[in-house]
Design goal:
Blueprint: H1 5-12, H2 14-20, E1 27-30, E2 35-44, E3 47-55, H3 70-79, H4 98-104
Antiparallel strand pairs: 1-2, 2-3
Length: 112
C-alpha cells in the first residue's frame, strides 16, 4: 500500500512540523532534499543571502530525523547530465519531492 510521504513525516514528527509550518519560527523543511534545517540570513556586500543549517535531530523531542537525500539527488541529476537544481531542462519531478517518493514507493503530495 502506497502512503503519502507528507502524512508519514507529519505523523512521525508532529511537534517539529507544527514549528516548520509556523512562519514566525526559523525551522524549515526542504522538500527536495528531505532535510530539516534552521534558516540563516547573511548579508554579503549589502545583499541578503538566505541559507539554512541542516539538523539531524528534532529540537523538541530529540528524535533522529530522516537522512538527507541531498547526495542521492545530485547523483541522480548528474547521471542525467545536469549539475544544478537550477539547470534549464531539469525534469519537473526534481523540483519537489516527487523524485524521492517514486524511489521509496510513496504517493506524491501535490501541495508542495
Amino acid at each position: 500500500m502506497n502512503t503519502s510521504w507528507k502524512n508519514d513525516l507529519y505523523a512521525e514528527y508532529p511537534e517539529l512540523f507544527e514549528l516548520v509550518d509556523d512562519s514566525s519560527t526559523p525551522l524549515f523543511f526542504d522538500f527536495v532534499f528531505r532535510e530539516f534545517g534552521v534558516h540563516r540570513y547573511n548579508v554579503v556586500d549589502g545583499s541578503k543571502l538566505e541559507s539554512y543549517d541542516v539538523i539531524s535531530f528534532c529540537p523538541i523531542t530529540g528524535k533522529k530525523l530522516p537522512k538527507s537525500l541531498r547526495d542521492l539527488f545530485f547523483d541522480e541529476i548528474e547521471a542525467l547530465g545536469f549539475t544544478s537544481s537550477q539547470d534549464e531542462g531539469l525534469p519537473a519531478k526534481y523540483k519537489n519531492a516527487d523524485w524521492w517518493t517514486e524511489r521509496l514507493g510513496m504517493t506524491p503530495d501535490r501541495s508542495t
